[in-house]
Amino acid sequence: MHRIKRVAVLGAGTMGAAIAAHCANAGLEVDLLDIAPKEGDDKNAVVKGGYERMMKAKPANLMSRSVAERIRIGNFDDDFGRVAEADWILEAIIEKLEPKQGLMARVEEIAKENAVISSNTSGIPLHSVAEGRSEGFKKRFLGTHFFNPPRYLKLLEIIPTAETDGEVVEAVRAFGERVLGKGGVIAKDTPNFIGNRIGSFAGMQSARYAFENGYGIEEIDAITGPLIGHPKTATFRLNDQVGLDIAVGVAENLYELVPEDESREELKPPPKLKEMVEKNLLGNKTGGGFYKRGKRDGKTVFDVLNLETFEHEPVQNPEVPILEEAQGQGDLGARLRFLMDRAEDDRHARFLRDTLLPYMAYASRRVPEISDTLEDVDHAMEWGFAHRAGPFRTWDLLGVAKTVEQMESLGIEVGPWVKEMLEGGNESFYKTEGSKELQFSPVNGQYEPVRVDPMILSLDEVRGEGGEISRNDSASLLDLGDGVLCFEIHSKGNSIDAKVVELGNEALRRLEEEDWAGLVIGNEGRNFCVGANLGEVAGTAQGGDLEGVGRAVEALQNLLMGFRYASKPVVAAPHGQTLGGGAEIALHADRICAAGETYMGLVEVGVGLIPAGGGTKELIRRLVSPAMHTRAPALPYVQEAFQNIALAKVSSSALEAKEMGYLDDDDRVVMNPDHLINTAKREVLDLADGYAPPIHDKGIYASGESVRTALEIGVKTLQWGRYASEYDGVIAGHLARVLTGGDLSLPQWVPEEYILKLEKEAFLELLKNEKTHERIGAMLKTGKPLRN
């Protein structure tokens, strides 16, 4: 299959427009087309409506508003000829068979011979959509079902028909993984495929059980979130987020499409949910569903729905005694086993047993109907619903044989192949042999290798194979192979503490003294690095040891300057929150390979401080100094750096981080976060051949007194307008001083160390102020900045 560069998305509804947006995020050129309205002069009225809704959507579909320039809109009457330019044509129109078939006939007439053609349908059989088309069309036609919102949810279900060419299937899967950053699973052409087939069963069965057995909304959400490896949205908050009309609609459509399903009646939405839909209690989109956000006594509150009156009432925070006890059991498997054992004598544990077991058993009865492999079923739930473990991996954690006994004692039917697996002496769905993970195949009754994405380089696997060279409680050094060293932070919250700095220095020493090609700074935590360990900083300062804080600041500065001027290339691989010191680490690397979802910013003002690990210096180097070589006026560039820090701006994506000056043109954006470490490793190897470190000179432009005065006047104006507090002004004054070179009356070029010294002085001065300690205390206690 040829390379996909241009995409035509046919249908600008919620999904079509959001898919178009994500293709644009990935750097593709996109045509977004829809029908021309029967009335009115504007033939693009329908597509414009979809495009504008996409632009306003929250969370944002686009990684940067500038990305929208890659999307051309048009209509099926005037602009259908553009489809001939597309390498991939994706249909996302109304869920009715005849219009889809008619559109496919038009597509076949005009599409390039080697263009991939797909449908995002979830309720109409793919083979029916392709009915009447030529053999050549059918070979390159398949389903590509995205989950909403496509930017954030990893799952991409790929559904071949009996006629789809296998090479096309694998090429689309690879394209989805490498270009769009998705996790591809192969599903069969059955109603609602994998994710929504199993997800609908689980959602409707859980809601029905809760309503029939007197469980409250808050109770269920307290126990069906992170406790069992599910996201914080749990059960009912998830419905509010998705839209109850969507959840009910999917279940009702599925009910009609699966007359042979032995659990069909379980798919029917409970009457309470239907009543909620009729009353427009759909969730966030209508302002209220199971919960309703509001204000009371000046504070944001979330009221909860009374299922008898359908009115929202203040939350009760009911007691769930087993919650704390279960959380103390350890990892996910230990928690789940504890809860299953307690089901007879605890009503909350009983709810989990009586909903999780039917869900796992249902998944076993649907295989191999919906998928040939267990890993694709598990991944569908992990990537589409953000579950830590899919049904079969969960079952393994509980113990397969013991759980089958429990299911049978409760009258829950298990897929016959599970019993055959156990009778054959096999104890688990997955097992490891050497370095290979295997999965049991319900199709051939044997174990087969779990598919390996060659672009994934797992640090845990490197560790498991003896690749860890050095370790303390907060960080590790690992050998990634091919002469590439990795510095991995794994402290609490991935924050920077003394032990992180200690191991960072060891990484530098080994890099210089041993035979390494270069260094990757990366990890597989939820976030790359959330900044300094505030508790450690505050504790040292409040103990009166400001000199100790000063030494810690210098140690971090020296480490990061060591990375910057190392004799071998250093590549940072940030993802998720990359804040404060985390951003400073990335900014001192030769190259940044950032995950698309990287939220980068220097946020120290939120705790009454300014960046002191070189972040202020780096923004001058990146935003101000280059412009000064062209003799441009300094103020606009210094103002940009000042606003980034003073307003604690955080990028909403790696693309926005590039626009803010945190990434430059040579840095890379990696759409699939699972590929990040591998991409960074390859970047090190690319740079290593003939590498020369940066020249250490007077490369920082200090703009002097006049620019500093202009910044200070701007702050005063904000204070007069009551947009900034008095103490905001104090912090901003220190920041302005550092950004412009301290007491310099005239602009001049200075070495990096000059600005680093100013950073440290300002940091320590602010730590002497009680208001800074109040801000740090508030952040540690609430996780939110205090404006004092």
What this model shows, in words?
- Residues 7-189 form the 3-hydroxyacyl-CoA dehydrogenase NAD binding domain.
- Helix 14 (347-366) crosses helix 16 (391-398) and helix 21 (534-542) runs antiparallel to helix 31 (770-782).
- A hairpin with a 2-residue loop joins strand 9 (291-296) and strand 10.
- The mean pLDDT is 96.
- The chain has an eight-stranded mixed sheet with strand order 3-2-1-4-5-6-7-8, sandwiched between helices.
- With 788 residues, the chain is α/β, with parallel strands linked by helices.
- The protein is built from 31 helices and 27 strands.
List the helices and strands and how they pair.
Elements: E1 6-10, H1 14-25, E2 29-34, H2 45-56, E3 71-75, E4 88-91, H3 97-110, E5 116-119, H4 126-129, H5 135-139, E6 141-146, E7 155-160, H6 166-178, E8 183-186, H7 195-212, H8 217-223, H9 236-242, H10 244-257, H11 271-278, E9 291-296, E10 299-305, E11 312-313, H12 321-327, H13 332-341, H14 347-366, H15 374-385, H16 391-398, H17 400-409, H18 416-423, E12 430-433, E13 436-440, E14 447-449, H19 459-464, E15 468-471, E16 475-479, E17 484-489, E18 495-496, H20 498-513, E19 518-521, E20 531-532, H21 534-542, H22 546-564, E21 570-572, E22 576-579, H23 581-587, E23 591-595, E24 598-601, H24 615-628, H25 635-646, H26 654-659, E25 668-670, H27 676-688, E26 700-702, H28 705-720, H29 726-740, E27 748-750, H30 752-767, H31 770-782
Parallel strand pairs: 1-2, 1-4, 2-3, 4-5, 5-6, 7-8, 17-19, 18-20, 19-21, 21-23, 22-24, 23-25
Antiparallel strand pairs: 6-7, 9-10, 10-11, 12-13, 13-14, 15-16, 16-17, 26-27
